[in-house]
Design goal:
Distance between the termini of chain A: 125 Å
Helix content of chain A: 25-40%
Oligomer: heterodimer
CATH superfamily of the largest domain in chain A: PAS domain
Number of domains of chain B: 1
Mean pLDDT of chain A: 90
Strand order of the largest sheet of chain A: 2-1-5-4-3
Radius of gyration of chain B: 13 Å
Distance between the termini of chain B: 28 Å
Largest sheet of chain A: 5 strands, antiparallel
Low-confidence stretches of chain A: none
CATH architecture of the largest domain in chain A: 2-Layer Sandwich
CATH superfamily of chain B: PAS domain
Helix content of chain B: 25-40%
Strand content of chain A: 25-35%
Shape of chain B: globular
CATH architecture of chain B: 2-Layer Sandwich
Number of helices of chain B: 4
Radius of gyration of chain A: 34 Å
Largest sheet of chain B: 5 strands, antiparallel
Low-confidence stretches of chain B: none
Mean pLDDT of chain B: 93
Strand order of the largest sheet of chain B: 2-1-5-4-3
Chain lengths: 329, 115
């Protein structure tokens, strides 16, 4: 080796070594992966974050080494910042939870898609441990609330592709996030509603308005259920719709009770209307609320003439004047 | 006998020795046999061809840190790492890497036992 060559190597080693020392001295964790998401390099802060020796981290898949949760549930590999960046070739940032042993760490992750030359896509991710930061704890609390709420909550992107839902959605439908991530909610369709129904729904929310209504949907096990749903568009600072939030409540039991009540009411109304005796119902102030056909025949008034009037309308004088004081003396 | 002298005289276990720039200065006969490398293909060359591609960048950074600071995190402990063989395969082996300063420059050597 000639001296020029040695000098060049010394210079390069010196530069790389200083960079490594500098990057190792900062508190943010930095990790760089190849096109498969395997770690090519990481700094000392990343070793500390993961809690494993540097040499065992190199070459490992980040999604295996650092599984993440977002607002509660574990996210699938496709939704992991690394998976998402490699898949879509775009940057991705967000707040996530990482369990290091029994300890939950709140992380801010900023990921960048980087092409080193034309054939070497890679990802550079900077991870900041935000555990204990007041604002993050607030977000964490809100996440817990979203996760714990009894109503099913689904967040989709502006095209309707699922990006998150809470545990109640899984309980309601039987689907896990891993199964339906980045799919539309079409998998819930039961066939009970026509295209016009969905066109109206989309027209409403794409216009930036809230859609509210009942939908008969199908669960993963094939059974049907009725949900009361409210879909709210979310806008960015420019006013563009970025996401939709759907809040769903299973009202199958309520619908069933309503139907049962309706049936009994119909049955009772039929009995009352066909009875030969005059049947009149009034409230506690003596105001007539129903008046059956037999009563019409008996008193010579039509329903429309007496409903809403005092019962004493049906009494001749002097009983009429005395009627309202019955039982007071 | 110094650590590097011991490695130079090792005849049973595969050994590779490099200078502080990461240039290979010695491999013993077992290394050539076990990992299918010819001495003339490695002497005077960088260590990189012995390292699987997805670890090469990390190796360069770590080696350079040692070059600048003189302190290594992987020295004198058994590490299970893959070696790229002369016929293009990856072979898992237990590495024990040592470093010693000789005439003002670091010399690094490793015993590499195939697993």
């Amino acid at each position: 080796m000639n001296n020029d060559f040695i000098s060049q190597i010394d210079s390069l080693r010196s530069t790389l070594g200083k960079m490594e020392v500098a990057l190792g001295s900062i508190s943010d964790a930095i990790v760089w992966t190849d096109e498969t998401g395997r770690i090519q390099w990481c700094n000392a802060a990343f070793d500390r974050l993961i809690g494993k020796p540097h040499i065992t981290i190199l070459g490992a898949l980040v999604v295996d080494l650092m599984p993440l949760k977002e607002h509660g549930p574990s996210i699938p590999g496709k939704a992991h910042p690394i998976g998402s960046i490699l898949n879509k070739k775009t940057d991705k940032s967000g707040y996530y939870e990482f369990m290091r042993g029994n300890r939950a760490l709140q992380l801010q992750i900023v990921g960048r898609y980087v092409e080193v030359g034309p054939t070497e896509p890679s990802v550079v991710v900077v991870v900041r441990d935000m555990t204990g930061v007041k604002e993050i704890e607030q977000i964490r609390l809100q996440s817990r609330a979203l996760e714990a709420t009894a109503n099913a909550i689904v967040i989709t992107d502006q095209k309707g592709f699922v990006i998150w839902f809470n545990r109640a959605f899984t309980t309601l439908t039987g689907y896990s996030l891993d199964e339906v991530y980045e799919k539309t909610l079409n998998f819930l369709k039961s066939g009970a509603h026509n295209n016009g129904f969905y066109e109206n729904l989309w027209k409403t929310i794409l216009a930036g308005r809230i859609w509210e209504g009942e939908t008969l949907n199908r669960k993963k096990d094939g059974s049907l259920y009725t949900e009361q749903q409210m879909i709210t568009p979310v806008h960015n600072e420019d006013g563009d719709i970025t996401h939709f939030i759907a809040i769903k409540q299973d009202i199958s039991d309520r619908k069933e009770s309503e139907e049962t009540l309706k049936d009994s009411e119909t049955r009772i109304r039929t009995i009352v209307n066909t009875a030969v005796d005059g049947i009149i119902t009034a409230n506690d102030r003596g105001i007539i609320q129903s008046f059956n056909p037999a009563a019409e025949k008996l008193f010579g008034y039509t329903q429309d003439e007496v409903i809403g009037r005092n019962l004493n309308t049906l009494m001749p004088s002097p009983y009429r004047e005395e009627h309202d004081t019955y039982g007071l003396s | 006998m110094s650590v590097i002298d011991q490695l130079m005289s090792e005849s049973e276990v595969p050994v590779v020795i490099s200078d502080q720039r990461g240039i290979i200065t010695h491999i013993n006969e077992p290394f050539g046999k076990v990992f299918h490398w010819k001495t003339e293909d490695l002497i005077g060359k960088a260590l990189v061809p012995l390292i699987p591609p997805n670890l090469q960048d990390a190796h360069q950074m770590g080696f350079s840190r040692f070059y600048v600071t003189g302190s290594g995190t992987l020295l004198d402990q058994a590490l299970d790492l893959k070696v790229l063989t002369g016929d293009g395969k990856e072979k898992l082996a237990e590495h024990t890497i040592s470093a010693e300063k000789i005439d003002g420059e670091w010399v690094l050597g490793a015993r590499i036992r195939p697993l």
